[in-house]
Amino acid sequence: MSAVENTNKKSNDKIKSVTLNHLQNYSSVQKVMSIAQSFPVVIGFIQWAMESEINLVNRILDSKMTPALLKYMYARFITLFQKVDNLFEFLVLREGVDSIIKDFQNHNNRMGFWVFWFYIDYMANVFNTLLIEFVIKPFKSVSGNQSKDKITSSENLPNVKELTVTTRNISNDIQGKAMEKYEILFKPTTDKLNNEFFEPAMKTYHDNLNKSQNIPKALYTTGIDIGNLTLEKLNSMKNNNESITKTNQEN
């Protein structure tokens, strides 16, 4: 194992970066690593600096003097770094660079209209992945079919179809949750309004209309009746509040 590979292996074991591991698969990166092997002093310094920094961070985190909040923030930072690292490796390197290289080779190393289809499908893949990672997974909603092991041709737009399924599932899930919230939060209020206001108002209107056989007069009479009923309810609520206040003061 070369000095560069040894350094990368040690750093990756500590950092656990899938992006760094993936980058080593590219020939251009391998050439840079081969050139760097001719500077062992520089490689040794980089390795020493990285190990020193990691050891310092570990000593700080293991110290009893370190506030718990700082340890929590560091753990959250590592979690966020790993998520961003995984997304970058998947979206930019695997689904971006690797996919376009494969499509380029499949088209005899020639540019063409297939680039347009690749762009559309790639953007659909990006949006679909972000929806799954930041909408579906955090709220434990519907499951998305995110494949990370197979690179397909972009001409059939598989990611556009998958994005359509994902967005449709999210829409159905949101509608279901909205109906649940409606049943809990709003339906009791609407039922109360319907039972105490709308139904009595319609009954009063029909009674007045049957008596007078005159729509304007029935509307006018109904308005007066509703106003009187509203005043009665307001006075009743006011009397109840005054009674409760008086009882509290006596106690």
What distance separates the N and C termini?
86 Å
Q: Which class of secondary structure composition applies to the elements?
A: mainly alpha
Strand % is under 5%
List the total number of helices.
Answer: 8
Helix content: over 70%
Shape, per Cα inertia axes: elongated
Describe the structure.
- By secondary structure, this protein is an all-alpha fold.
- It folds into 3 domains: 1-66, no CATH class; 68-188, no CATH class; 189-250.
- The chain is 82% helix and 0% strand.
- It has helices at 3-15, 18-23, 27-36, 40-62, 68-106, 114-136, 158-212, 215-250.
- The relative contact order is 0.04.
- Mean pLDDT is 73; it is low at 1-5, 7-14 and 141-152.
- Pfam families: Perilipin_2.
- One of its GO terms (molecular function) is protein-containing complex binding.
- One of its GO terms (biological process) is aerobic respiration.
Précis, in short:
The protein is mostly helical. The chain starts with a helix and ends with a helix.
What are the SSEs and their pairings?
Blueprint: H1 3-15, H2 18-23, H3 27-36, H4 40-62, H5 68-106, H6 114-136, H7 158-212, H8 215-250
Helix pairs in contact: 1-4, 5-6, 6-7, 7-8
GO molecular function: protein-containing complex binding
GO cellular component, one term: lipid droplet
